[in-house]
Amino acid sequence: MLQSKTLTQNKEQITKENKAMKNTKKEADSKNTNKNYGYVKNRFEQKCRDFNSTFVLIAKSWIKDPSGIISLFVIPTFYFVIFYFLLRNKYSQSLIGYLMLPPLTVITTLGTGLINWKNSVFLKRIDTTGISKTTFLLSLWTFNLLVGLLGVCVQIIVGLIIAQGDAVDQYNSMNWGWFILGTIFISLMSIGLATLIAGIFSSQSMVQGVTMIIYFLSLFLSGIMIPYTTIGSVKALRIISYFTPYMYGNAVTSKSIESAWQMFDGPTYQVFTEIWQPCVASAGIIVALFAITTMTFKWSSND
């Protein structure tokens, strides 16, 4: 009996020790989890602060430079007025293309602006604060996306003033969801191309030359200024248009008006058979541009 009692006491003691060890392990795991959560939370809050401070710096710099305001609001309005009155009788559905001029123009303004920053102390100051390239590029992309969308809003108002009845009819019949999605795609493509080009080249004249070539080719080959039916009817031009990223974003925008979408999915030829195709292509181009830019972007022209 005494031996049995001793065994029972030993088992109880071992059970208590095992429970104590399990509780200790749970407490340690809980502390590690809380510690990891606290670390992730602090890192996230720091990234948010870096993003906000960089966004404000970029906004202040952009406001001080009148060339950006002129390029995004004045020049697109000038093109809108000229091309509308020249082509309104032949291409009545081109109105939505003219609304895409500000996002497209971002490629010229942002490219030269980045080169000016690289040649000054602006980017060097940001680099010394410890802000990562990814955070800076996210702030830059976000700000210019908002500016591009603001430019589109201005062009919508210009359309009401200039086109009046034509604008009202098209605005009422538009699917605004597809229009906004396409506008975002075109804006991000412009931003991605501008940051990529400015990150690779250090010469302002080189950046201006490359961005202007892309700008003017895209104006006419992507279906923004002239409906895609005109370009698509010539096989050589249609093949070249596949290499202009804006064609895919403009196809998404064109889905907002069924007659405009038929330019890409019509009886004569089919560029796309389903709307998801230009959506996936646009998203893939944007992701690729951002990934490449984070690897090639330099804070200074001397790096």
From TrEMBL:
Keyword field: Membrane, Transmembrane, Transmembrane helix
Top-level taxon of origin: Bacteria
GO MF entries: ABC-type transporter activity
Broad class of where this protein is predominantly found: membrane
Polar residues bias: start-end ranges: 1-12
Region described as Disordered: spans on this chain: 1-32
Transmembrane segments: 69-87, 99-117, 138-164, 176-201, 213-231, 275-297
Gene Ontology CC annotations of this record: membrane
Mode of membrane association: Multi-pass membrane protein
Name of the protein: ABC-2 type transporter transmembrane domain-containing protein
Location(s), subcellular: Membrane
InterPro entries linked: ABC2_TM, Nod_factor_ABC_transporter
Signal peptide as annotated in the record: none
Basic and acidic residues compositional bias, start-end: 13-32
Domain ABC-2 type transporter transmembrane: 60-250
One Pfam family matching this protein: ABC2_membrane
